Amino acid sequence: MFIEMSVKGLTLDPLTNMPIVILKDLEDKRVLPIWIGLFEANAIALELEKITTPRPMTHDLMRDVIAGLNARVIKVVVNDLKNNTFYAVIHLNSNGNQIVIDSRPSDAIALALRSGAPIYVSAEVVNKAKSIDMTKESEDTDQLKEWLENLKPEDFGKYQM
After folding, report:
1. 17 Rama sector, left if φ>0, alpha if ψ -120 to 50, beta otherwise
2. What secondary structure letter does DSSP report for 28?
3. pLDDT tens per residue, range 147-159
4. pTM of the entire structure?
C-alpha cells in the first residue's frame, strides 16, 4: 500500500543543522521527515518558492532530458528504509513503457516537484520511520522526536541557505 504525500516544507534539524524535507499525507494524519543534503534542499526550496535560475539546475536538466526523450515522470515513490537510509524510485512513462529508476528520495522529490508528479511513500516505510534512530549516537533523541512531533506549518517559513 502506498500513501500519497506532499512536501509541507523544509526545516533544519536543531541538533545537526542538516536540512529536513517534511512530507505529509493528504489527510494531514502522517508526517515523514527525511534528512537531505544542502544541495538537494536548495533545489527543493527553489521549486517550492518558484524561483527561476538563469540556467537550468540539475533537477531542471533531468526534467528537460526526460521531456526531450518523449517521456514523463508518472510518480515517485519512497519505497524503502534500511539502516536509517531512505530509498526511492522514479516511475517514467516512455512511449507506453514504464521505466523505474533508483533514486535518492531528495532527488526524486525535487524532480517530482518540477514535473508535477505525485509523491508516494510505502506504508511500510512510514511504519518503519516511526522507530528510526534519528540521531544515532546522540543523547537528544527524545528531544528531537518531540520537536518533530510538535512541528507546526508556521515553523517552516522560508528556507534560507
Report:
1. left
2. S
3. 666 665 555 544 4
4. 0.82
Q: How far apart are CA 99 and CA 69, in angstroms?
A: 13
Q: Is residue 155 part of a domain?
A: no
> How many percent of the chain have pLDDT more than 90?
71
In a domain, 107, yes or no: yes
User: Domain limits at 111?
Assistant: 2-133
Q: Per the structure block, which three cell numbers stand in for 59?
A: 533537477
Residue of 59, 62, 89, 86 whose CA lies nearest to 77: 89
Number of structural domains the chain divides into: 1
CATH number, domain at 42? 3.10.690.10
Q: Which of 5, 12, 8, 84 shows the shortest CA–CA distance to 41? A: 12
Judged on CB neighbours under 10 Å (0-12, 13-18, 19+), 117 is: buried
Please check whether residue 86 lies inside any domain of the structure.
Answer: yes
List the grid coordinates of 99: 521505466
User: What is the Cβ-side half-sphere exposure of residue 106, based on CA atoms within 13 angstroms?
Assistant: 19
pLDDT digits (tens, 9 = 90+) for 90-102: 999 999 999 999 9
